[in-house]
Amino acid sequence: MGVHGLTTYLRENRIALARTIKLPPGGILGSERTRVVIDGWSFIYELIRCADLPWVHGGEYDTFARLIERVVDAWVDAGLQLYFVFDGELFGLIMGVGVISPVRSCPGSVSLQLTTILSSSGPYPKIKFPIVISRITKTSIEGGLLFFRTSTTARARPYFLDETRMLPPHAYSVCVRILLDLASSSDPPYHRYNHRVEVHFADEEGDSYAVALAGRLRAYVAGRDSDFVVLNAEGYRGYIPLDEMLWTEISVYTPYYSEAGGVYSSMDGDAGDDVDSDGFKVVHKPSGRRRAALHRRTGTGLVPPDGAPGLETDLILSFAVYTPIALADRLQIPVSLLPLLGALVGNDFTGAPDDTTPSTSISLILRKQNLQHLFFNRTLTLSQRIVHVATTLRSIKKQIGSVMELVDAAVSALLDAPPDILATDERAAVIERIADATLQYAISPQDGAEEGWVSDVCPIHTRDACPLFALLSRSPPEQSFSPEEDAIGSDAPNGILIDADEADPRARVASLYVDAYRRGALDPHVLDILSSGTCWPRLFLEDPDKETIATSIGRPIREWCYALLESGVGLLEKSAHEAPDESDEDDDDELVDVEEDDGDVDPLAPLRGALKQLGETQEAADDHGDTANGDDSPAPTPRSQIITEYVRRGTRLAAEEVSIPYMRDLLNSISISAPLHQEHPDLWPVQLWPGDTRVSILLRAFNSDISSVRTLRGPHLSLVLALRWVVFRMHARAAETSASKERGQERWRRSEVRAALWSFMWSISGAGDAAEELDELSSLQIAIRERNIQLVAQLSMALEVVGHLSEVLLLSDYCPNPMRYFSGMRFHGILTKSIPAELICIDGDLWETCVEGLEDSFMEEQRSKARKERKKGGGRPMPTHPPKA
After folding, report:
1. SS3 767
2. Structural domain harbouring 362
């Protein structure tokens, strides 16, 4: 979220709006710390921007992880108490329906009171979908298209890479994992973080959650979103822009004893520099107390300056604070009118400033187009628009009976067109959309004590008001239950109160998911599936002429996630036969993309064919349905329930409907039966099965249930599953269309798997080591090749679905994400021979596990090309075969 132009307005009026806070040096901190709630996504973006980390190779996550530790360490030393807040699912779980009542503050002015009441009818309409689609299209899709259509020489230039910069796809998961480790680690080096770093996960969009939490804690909110100066809550102390933080390093030069000469000296020189006839230096006794020399260095942003070696240094942090009250006073409007001002000026719910999507339908214009085109003359700057709206709101003098009347009056005054330009229903649509955008700033009054959670399921909501709990739970909680004795890892229930009794399996699964989400063990993208029936796979740089990896690599595993969630807690009733939403109508002017064809072959045809053949051999007469214990399972019936996936199709983001398979059919396809003690008439949720059975499902879903894989655990297991999956999927795609040379070329080579294994540097333990290696890699001028980019994209998507399936199976601690150890530059450097092959050293057992059973799935190495390069001369020949492990 963000009000268009408000960040610029704050900077232009910084002297009048901001107050500067300077914290004392860490060495003289008192017992009271400054509490700051950090917007997690703003932290990620700002840290990557400040550090200027390379992105085109797939992400330098190892360096990124060390930078996170360095910044948090400096913040804690500076005296901050940190509360990181990350967004919930992308579009809200159960959004609030606002009940607005006008409050007369003084004659001639109106202020708004917003009260949020939870809707029991389900998720809020897809109000934010258009802006999200627009942003993904412009960054990931159009940026990737520009990259692949630009010459190799031009796209390697720094300015081009800066213009097309993308966020590495695993930045979120790596950041969350590092912060959780810092907040909960029992290792002695991290004891200093105890009770000084907390990580929270919002039920919906994190902005309002962060301000509500800051109000309870009487804290500031730090981020990169101007909405934080519009949102308000009792106790909220103000907004700190992350890019306006200032580090000041004070180096103190003091006299020290020189071991070489045994005399006192100083970096500033001694008072006596006399040398006698024998060449000895004459030392003069100081006539008074020597004053230490102070040297200052400053740095703006998150990353503190490097300390000079051998010197005593103090880091002092200062920052600017903006408050809603100061902004309202500057604009001369009541503070409660700031949300309406934000909606009228423009935010994420009323269209982006550069949204120029062509459309001929008035209904589509009102739903998709930027409403600000109706309100403002194009000659007005963004800052002038803010002043113009504030002036308009102040000018409304007539008696207002309701908030909708106020919105109507404001819209009428702002319309930059004749009053009859819009029909009555069109005008009503504009007013409704402005009101909806205003309601996004509503924050419920907070109950409970300042310290601790408001309830046992949410830090800021009571049980009845918690959107997450309302989504996953169906009835009032009554009792707790004990963990499964054979559950693997710490993803089992921890005594959280659940809905109904133990006999309700879905209530137990819901309780497990609430607990996992609060602990950071359930990705917010999984909640999108539950709340809105949509899935938004993360997009990164990939070849636009090929089928998107979100489909070829990710969809088969996501179908497992859909089926598990539907059988475990239930999904929205969303049928493929439902009438399409008006916002999804096809535009007559829309360009149709030409996609990868390969003879109209369905990449999932073998899976569908196998399921169909399995269904034809089964009995279809049992209406009640047995558990999957034998050959008497009922035949699969067509499934009408769907999930809408938003994936790249050619050069645009398209909505594709995916039917949710039955859990029983998927289990039959991998030859897994329900536990023998099963007595429930329906299939018991898999999430409640024994841990070893859930592990078997995880391994077989990735076609990797072999003894060598079963011996692995932790990040190594995730990496092996991902590598085996991409090798298997690329080989399967090539086998489907043996006549397609292009798909045959998509298969992985053995050397590429070895390069991927070596790209994970498990041993780097310090920020200095990671930064030093990054500098060395940057100096190599590693070539950017399209095939290598595609390999990294495939590996990233495979690791994403490995994480999602393990989380849905409640096995996240058993199979954590390994990307915190990954370096894309290292991977590209190995493949382009920029890094000598003799330096590559990988675990032989890990390599054998990756290729076991897949020996025939690899593509041949490029022998002939290597020979041609040798004949050209130009340096000593590079080895074509990687050394044996």
Report:
1. helix
2. 329-465
Residue 69 within a domain? no
Helix (H/G/I), strand (E/B), else coil: 156: coil
Question: For 520, how many CA atoms within 13 A lie in the half-sphere containing its CB?
Answer: 21
Residues 6+ apart with CB under 8 A from 322: 10, 17, 18, 229, 238, 239, 240, 241
Residue 66 lies in a domain: no
Helix H or strand E encompassing 779 = none
Q: How far apart are the C-alpha atoms of 134 and 126, rounded to whole Å?
A: 14
Output the CA–CA distances (angstroms, integers) from residue 12 to 226, 242, 382, in the order listed.
Answer: 14, 17, 12
Other beta carbons less than 10 A from residue 789's beta carbon? 22
- Residue 417, Cα to own-chain centre: how many angstroms? 41
Spatial contact of 43 and 296, defined as CB atoms under 8 Å apart: no
Bridge partners (DSSP) of residue 86 are 201
Residues with Cβ < 8 Å from 119, sequence gap 6 or more?
94, 95, 96, 97
List 642's β-bridge partners, or say none.
Answer: 659
| Bridge partner residues of 281 (DSSP) | 275
Where do the H-state alpha helices sit in 290-423?
A: 324-331, 338-345, 362-368, 372-375, 382-395, 403-414
CB atoms within 10 A of CB 462: 15
Please state the domain count of the chain: 2
CB 441 within 8 A of CB 230: yes
Q: Of the candidates 465, 494, 528, which is a domain's last residue?
A: 465
* pLDDT number for residue 417: 59
Residue 84 to residues 31, 198, 328: CA-CA distances in angstroms?
Answer: 21, 6, 27
Rounded Cα distance, 687 and 611, in Å: 23
Element (H or E) spanning 223, and its range?
strand 220-223
Structure confidence at residue 353 (pLDDT): 44
Instruction: Look at residue 631 in the predicted model and tell me its pLDDT.
Output: 42
The CB-based long-range contact list for 737-742 (8 Å cut-off, 24+ gap) reads 737/598, 737/599, 737/601, 739/599, 740/598, 740/599, 742/598
Cross-strand partners of 22: 318
Residue 735 is assigned to a structural domain of this protein: yes
DSSP letters, 604-628, are THHHHHHHHHHHHTSB---SS---S
CA distance 562 to 760: 30
For residue 250, how many C-alpha atoms fall within 13 Å in the half-sphere facing its CB? 13
pLDDT at 570: 86
Alpha carbon 803 to chain centroid distance? Answer: 13
Q: CA–CA separation, 803 vs 797, rounded Å?
A: 10
> Do 615 and 745 contact (CB within 8 A), yes or no?
no
What's the pLDDT at 120?
A: 28
The dihedral through the CA atoms of 788, 793, 799, 805 has a sign that is negative
Which of 446, 465, 484 marks a domain boundary?
465
> Does the residue 651 lie in any domain?
no
- Any alpha helices (H) in 580-714, and if so which ranges? 605-616, 663-669, 691-701, 707-710
CB 772 within 8 A of CB 524: no
| Distance in angstroms (rounded) separating the CA atoms of residues 327 and 387 | 11
Distance of alpha carbon 378 from alpha carbon 438, whole angstroms: 23
List of E strands, 483-595: 498-499, 534-535
Burial 119-135 (b: 16+ CB within 10 A, else e): eeeebbebbbbbbbbbe
Listed as ranges, residues in the chain with pLDDT below 70 are 1, 26-31, 89-127, 185-193, 251-299, 307-312, 351-370, 416-421, 446-452, 474-503, 574-640, 676-683, 739, 763-775, 777-779, 863-885
3-state SS, residue 504: coil
Residue 221 near residue 240, CB atoms below 8 Å: yes
| pLDDT value of position 98 | 31
